[in-house]
Structure formats: C-alpha cells, structure tokens
Amino acid sequence: MNAIEIKGLCKSFKEFEIDNVDLTLPGGCVVGLVGENGAGKSTTIKLILNMIFKDSGSIRVLGKDNVTELDSVKEEIGVVFDESYFPPSLTPVKLGNIMKHIYRNWDMQRYQDYLQQFSLPEKRPIGKLSRGMKMKLAITVAMSHHAKLLILDEATSGLDPVVRDDVIDILTDFTREEDHSILISSHIVSDLEKLCDYIAFMHKGKMMLFEEKDRLYEQYGVIHCTEKELQSIPSDAVIGKKIGSYGAEAIALRSAVPHGITVYPVDIEKLFIFMIRERE
Questions:
Q1: Fewer CB near the last or first residue (10 Å), C or N of the chain?
Q2: What is the pTM of this model?
Q3: Distance from chain centroid for Cα 205
C-alpha cells in the first residue's frame, strides 16, 4: 500500500496556485519534497492533512481519502512543522503526561527513551529549550505513538549542521521498520540526499520532477565543455546550462553526451539550481 497518493491536485490562491500535482509515497520509503521558498511545499502538506481544502484532484493517506476518512488513520500519522507549537510553560515530562490522554497508542516508555537518547532536559520548560531541542522534542512526540507515516515540513531548517545530522539519524532509524514511511520537505537538499529514496521537485506550484534518487544519479551528469561541444548535445537532453567566458557548464542526460566529453557526477542541489535557471 502507498502511504500517500496524490493525483491531479489543484488549489488556487490570489497570487499562487498548486497546478495539477501528482505525487506517490510508496510504503516503507522516504520522499523528499524539495524546492525554493514559496514553491508550494508547505501548501501541499497542508492539503494532504486537509488543513486547507483542495479545488480538485484526489489525495489518499494510508489508503484513506484525506477528506472523508482521515480521522480513521490520524493515530498512525506523526506531523512535525518548522516551529514547535507546544505550550512554552510545559516541560517534556508534563507534555508526555498530556499526550498519553490524546493518543490511544501512546508509548510512554518509548517517549522517555527518546528523551534520554536525544539528551532533552525533562524538567526544563519548553519555552527555554533551544530551537534544535524543540525540533527533537516535536519529532519525539511524533514517533512515540507508533505512527506509520511521518510528515515533516521544513523540520531541519534553521538548525545547525550537528543538530540536523542528529535529526537525520533519528529519521533513518525510524524507517528501518518496513511499514514506516516519511514525507519530508526541505530546501536544504543535502539533508534529503542522505535520507531519501525518492526526490520530488516543486517549482512555482508545479511538480517539475519525481524520481528515485539513485536513478537521478544514473541519468544525469555534469559536463564542462566549449559552447560548440554543448551544441552537439540535443537541446532536450540538457537540463540546464551556464555559459561563461571560459566555456560552458551543463547538466545533461548521460546517454546523450557524445564520446570524448567527460561526464562528472551530479549532486541533487546543483541539478535543481540548473533546472530553475533554465526556466526563469
């Protein structure tokens, strides 16, 4: 069963729209939803969670329609946004005592184990925790009621590299169970390269690309060449290019690059930067 299925999703606002978006999160996998600020990542997540209403299209979450049947699977979904919304006067201990009355499957032992594992001060008010600690606490709550699906919206933004690496390790451990899936949005592409099985790239409300991460590495490469050499590559095989006084740099389909031009490995961030520049 797919954890999330989106088909033909549309939502119009005054100055922005989600335009015919398709997205599938296979069960047991991690999909990274990437794009620049304002690309539509957070809006898409809010549509998935039925926090805002779609204009058209269909969304299924853990096999259920996200409008008429979402309540039946809410216990199996853990959600983390880019800010912690827990009352600042509560401590992690008091928060756990509240959550056990909210979730039927709340696992207090697991919650306490995560608090210790993440070195979270159990009796310090949440309002006095650092941003990194608040995000770890939010992820702890999301994973302490035996959720099968985690949805994280910019959960690593604004964190220092060490804390971000800790969070990625936490999420990697979560996905070791076959029925656990993650949808994570971020504009920090390097985080997603470590974690994700699939990459979904949004730009101005459109889904520009959805592909297995390893397949992207296999398909695309970086070339450094002259303008004349670049012209020998079919234009529809060139994802993006940058031409300067010392020659050209481009990202292209490996299969279309003529013999004699060296193809270097591509990183996902550079791929998206070149795609965006090509469309502007």
A1: C
A2: 0.90
A3: 15
